[in-house]
Design a protein that fits this description.
Layout: H1 2-26, E1 46-47, E2 59-69, E3 81-91, H2 95-105, E4 118-126, H3 127-132, H4 138-145, E5 152-155, E6 172-183, H5 184-189, E7 196-201, H6 205-217
Antiparallel strand pairs: 1-7, 2-3, 2-7, 3-4, 4-6, 5-6
């Protein structure tokens, strides 16, 4: 049922955007409606999340707390727990795994072995914060801002209409080296203690984001490139 809710919300967003575009197109002069390339500004990059369903791949969360045992306490009898607050995170775990996990946790027909112990999250920061942390040089900043650098992804800002809280989100930057996990049950529990589900990437921006992340993790370093004569 949660999958149906997710699909219905996604279709609803798509249909609304399509209706808006059709309305704008019908208002144009007849000659302006033919032979015109699709408007990139009309692309649907984000959709509203289904906040009472399973977590989704590409979902943007805010105020996620990561808890881990401090390194200094490893040699001590009593452990010390560090709390790291992540203002922005993006879920990277597979959608089907998250769906089956949610179903198994809520008494569905899914086998218990479908439980996912941890959710993989990518840390995100504001675009400006990411850019300021880069090595000096105009070339790397230009490549990062244009999403031409394999290690980084810049996301367009989120309009208020695509934010579950109705506030919108700034343009975010993701470093594919910065990822971590949170136990799945703990992540769901954080929904009652300050964490928020804000928006999620729409197809095919979700697939593109996943492709870039997977490509970065599977990169192969060569001793040298091929010699071509």
């Amino acid at each position: 049922m949660s999958w149906l809710h997710h699909t219905a919300r996604w279709l609803g967003t798509k249909l609304q955007r399509f209706a808006d575009r059709q309305s704008a197109t019908s208002a144009q002069p007849e000659g302006a409606q033919s032979g015109v390339a699709p408007d990139p500004a009309a692309a649907v990059i984000y959709i509203l999340p289904v906040t009472n369903g399973p977590f989704r791949q590409g979902e943007v969360l805010t105020d996620v707390v990561q808890r881990r045992r401090s390194f200094q306490s490893l040699a001590l009898a009593a452990s010390e727990i560090e709390e790291i607050l992540h203002p922005y995170c993006i879920i990277a775990s597979q959608d089907c795994d998250l769906e089956q996990d949610h179903d198994a946790r809520h008494g569905g027909n899914t086998a218990p072995d479908k439980i996912v112990p941890n959710v993989l999250l990518l840390q995100a920061v504001t675009k400006n914060e990411l850019i300021l942390g880069l090595a000096p040089g105009s070339d790397i900043r230009r490549n990062v801002l244009g999403n031409k650098h394999d290690r980084y992804q810049i996301l367009e800002r989120v309009e208020a209409a695509d934010d579950a809280l109705g506030n919108g989100l700034p343009s975010l930057g993701v470093d594919f080296k910065r990822y971590f996990t949170v136990p799945t049950d703990e992540l769901y529990a954080q929904l009652t203690s300050g964490m928020q589900r804000r928006t999620q990437l729409s197809s095919n921006y979700l697939e593109r984001f996943n492709q870039r992340f997977a490509g970065y993790l599977s990169r192969v370093a060569l001793l040298r490139e091929h010699r071509v004569e």
